[in-house]
Design a protein that fits this description.
Number of strands: 8
CATH architecture: Alpha-Beta Barrel
CATH class: Alpha Beta
Distance between the termini: 8 Å
Strand content: 15-25%
Structural class: alpha/beta
CATH superfamily: Metal-dependent hydrolases
Length: 257
């Protein structure tokens, strides 16, 4: 069984053929799919999708790019109310993204802290988006750390040292299709860690793996990510997929695979 722990299947990119995409992912052996929200509206969409399929789960989150729309308490109150849905398994995606020069870093940091505290209150794991902001992300995690903090670094792009620092704080690393790219350092990172630290995702419709690079990504392609992990670690595809499914179920408190 394969796992797509971060896939925007509820996004409009799939409105024309969502059922066909679901049929393909089921035919490809994907047994767990988690659809994250990036604001209140998309979080509602994620919950609606998850409520229609027993193998799909939702996250409720506020992406750092959406932090400007969360000034005031009302947005956070709505997100917290949505997080009580029985199909919500995490707070995410949340985090920091300094890639664009116009990024409002203080505002992103404040939103990140609020969402981390929400997860602590609800006893839910967090799914973190981090791009070009590792130092601040790790610092804030350290400052907001509590004994039950756990979660996943979505679409992990850091090096081995950053990976170890994340794992030390109770996080697993979610590996996307970029692991199949020629210039990726992820194979080296994967070899340096335990299989227990790893989860797989597509981030569909983005970041298609080879041989689909440049086309719309979809959950069925997570097999190529799992194959790359197995190859990097020198283990069978079955061992890799079973370990990743177990890691995912434990982190998000899902039924045993």
């Amino acid at each position: 069984m394969f796992v797509d722990a971060h896939c925007h299947l509820s996004f409009p990119d799939f409105d024309l053929d969502r059922q066909e995409v679901i049929d393909r992912l089921r035919g490809a052996g994907v047994g767990i799919l988690i659809d994250p929200g990036i604001d209140a509206r998309t979080s509602r969409k994620s919950i609606e999708l998850a409520s229609a399929f027993d193998f799909i789960y939702a996250n409720v989150g506020l992406h750092p790019h959406e932090a400007r729309g969360a000034i005031g308490a009302e947005v956070y109150e709505e997100l917290e109310a949505l997080a009580h849905s029985p199909k919500v398994v995490a707070i995410g995606e949340i985090g920091l993204d300094y890639h664009y020069p116009e990024s409002d870093r203080p505002l992103q940091q404040e939103a990140f802290r609020v969402m981390l505290r929400m997860a602590a209150t609800l006893d839910l794991p967090v799914v973190i988006h981090c791009r070009d902001a590792w130092e601040d992300m790790l610092r804030i995690l350290g400052e907001e750390c509590h004994s039950g903090m756990r979660g996943m670094l979505h679409c992990f792009s850091g090096d081995t040292e950053i990976a170890r620092q994340c794992i030390k704080r109770g996080f697993k690393l979610s590996i996307p299709g970029t692991v199949t790219y020629k210039r990726s350092i992820l194979a080296e990172v994967i070899r340096s860690l335990s299989l227990d630290d790893l989860i797989t995702e597509t981030d569909a419709p983005y970041l298609s793996p080879v041989p689909f690079r440049g086309k719309r990504n979809e959950p069925a392609h997570v097999r190529f990510v799992t194959e790359a992990i197995a190859a990097a670690r020198g283990i069978s595809l079955e061992e890799a997929s079973e370990g990743i499914a177990r890691n995912t179920a434990e982190l998000f408190r899902l039924p045993a695979p």
